[in-house]
Amino acid sequence: MKITDQEVLHVAGLSRLKLDEHELKRFLRELNAIVDYMDMLAQIDTAGVPETVHATMLTRALRQDIPERSQERAAALANAPSQREGKIVVPRVIE
Question: Which helix (H) or strand (E) is 87 found in, with range?
């Protein structure tokens, strides 16, 4: 199944995107490559392969959430490039 120019333009319109000719050809090429890959995957015999929710068989990917003592304030402030009144001073981001 190949994707057509009209289908790319239709989806772009639904997304409120305006594509020039170069972008249209690029998206058409990239989307068709994705569809070709999906067609290749569809040909693989998966009979007898159990369904999975994750690519690896990890049962617990995250460490246990065990409360621990936090770093002492003096040690944390010792690493800070600038501090004032027991707090780390950082550059202002929002004006």
Answer: strand 87-88
